Structures are given as structure tokens and as C-alpha cells.
Amino acid sequence: MSQSVTGTISALVVDDEQLAREELAFLLRDFPEVEILQSATNGLEAVRLIERLEPDLVFLDVQMPGLDGLGVIAKVRDSGESVPHFILTTAFDQYAVEAFRLEALDYLLKPVEKERLAETVARAKRIIEDRQQAQDKAAESVESVVPPQKSTVQRTKLLVRTNNKNLMVDAQDLIYATIDDGMITVVTSHFEGQSNYRTIEELQSNLDPNLFWRVHRSFLVNINKIKEVIPWFKSSFQLKMDDKKQTEIPVSRIQTRRLRALLKI
Questions:
Q1: pLDDT tens-place string over residues 183-225
Q2: I need a surface site. Which of 34, 159, 179, 256 has the fewest CB within 10 A?
């Protein structure tokens, strides 16, 4: 997760009540530093969007059917990936203790007051900027002392299961791979199917690191199969791939820096 060069904070709004989502989005229009990427109507949808969009900030309703706000925080943290800052919103103050136990950035009571929201946004901006500066310094330090790692095995052929057949394909024909619910789907120039690898990391480690790039936690792409780079939400990009569906793949905010350097953007 990171901010754009203009200091924009990317955010999600999560609430099962449409009026509450619209009211908060309306209030946030007066804060140009906050960019709402999307909204979610339930906890499971929120988890999926957090994994896909990697927002800096999530305004999260506590009481929702199914997976509630506290459950969303627990599920995202259990994933072991980058965790956004959460701001809990609710009509009840009884969740305040639990919110701070989960290290939520802040806690807003509904109806949200603009003055109180301004305090929250200012605090979020300070914390996110500090974290981004620390990440940038850490990245620069690692890049300066750690040489690029080479894979011990670089396979030129991959086994792909499709239509009850096990097909061998040239690795260079792989356009991209994605993982969902523990299953890796491989898209090639001619067809798509399932890989026998268990994780994206395992698949990537067996391929040429100069050719295959993990642009997002859920996507591995062949850089020679990128058809177009599309500006996305000001602070990041999507890659349009050269497959039949012209699939658009998000570049994580962490990988955006590498994209800019690679393509001189």
C-alpha cells in the first residue's frame, strides 16, 4: 500500500446500509486527500476488495450480517498480507474497547460529524505518510545491499490441466497466472487451465525472474505479454494483458514503484 505522488489516501467504504455508505461518501468529498476506490455492502465483499485493491484506509461498519466488521479485521490479518488502517463506524459506543484492542486507527459514532471526521482524516494522513516514508527507506536499503536472487530451477515447460487433459506448454506462452481459493489458473496464448503448483510463490520460483513478475499478491504476469498500461485511481496502474479477453490486472501499490522504474513512467 502506498500513496500517490499527490498524497492521495486510497480508501474503501464498507457498510450494509446504502444510506450510511452514501452519507459517508458525501462527507468525504470535502477531503480531496481521500480517494474512495470502491464501496462494499458486506464483510466478505470487503475482504475481497481489500485483497484486490490494497487500500490505505478502510471505513468499516461494525454490525453487518454474516461477517461483521471485527471479523473482517481478523480475516485480513490472518491472511498475513499487508493490512490497511481500519476506521470503525457504528451507532453504538460499546465496541470502542474492542476497536482499540484490534488497533483500529479510529472509531466514529454514527451519524458521523464532519468535524470529527476531519480529525480522523488528519490523523490517518500523518500515520500513512510516516509508514510510507519508512517503507521507502527500507526498500532503498534492501536494494542497495541485496543482489537480485536467481531461481535455482527455471523451467521452460509447464503442465496445465484443461478439459481432463494434462498439457505441456512453453513457459514463454504463459500470459499470466492468478490464484483464487487456493487454485492457480494459468492463461496462455491459446487456452487456460489449472496449474499443479500450490502457490503463486512456488510457480514464480520455477520461472525466469527477468520475465515473470508478481505485480499483485494474486497475479503473476509475463512482462512480454503486457499490451497496455492503464492509469488507475491516480495512484496506481492496471495492466491490460495480451490474452483473448484482454484481461486487466491491478498492479499493487507496493509494485507500482517497480513499474515506474521498469517502464520509465
A1: 999 999 889 999 989 888 899 988 998 899 999 888 999 999 9
A2: 159
Amino acid at 53: L
Return d(Cα 216, Cα 201) in angstroms, integer. 11
CA distance 246 to 177: 14
- CB atoms inside a 10 Å sphere around CB 236: 24
Residue 53 contacts by C-beta under 8 Å, 6 or more apart in sequence? 10, 12, 37, 38, 250
Confidence of residue 157 (pLDDT cuts 50, 70, 90): confident
Within 8 A by CB and 6+ apart from 244, the residues are none
Distance of CA 10 to the CA centre of its chain: 11
SS3 label, residue 18? helix
User: What pTM did the predictor assign?
Assistant: 0.63
| Residue entry with cell 454490525 | 63
Contacts of 99 (CB under 8 A, 6+ apart): 62, 88, 107
Residue with grid cell 461477517, as numbered in its chain? 67
Q: How far apart are CA 44 and CA 39, in angstroms?
A: 12
Are 64 and 15 spatial neighbours (Cβ–Cβ below 8 Å)? yes
Q: How far is CA 174 from CA 29, 112, 195, 198, 216, in A?
A: 42, 49, 11, 17, 16
* C-beta atoms surrounding 25 within 10 Å: 16
Alpha-carbon span 11 to 56, nearest angstrom: 6
Cell 509447464 sits on residue: 158
Strand, coil or helix: what is 250? Answer: strand
Domains and CATH numbers, the chain: 9-144 (3.40.50.2300), 157-263 (2.40.50.1020)
Instruction: Measure the CA–CA gap between 249 and 226, rounded to whole angstroms.
Output: 10
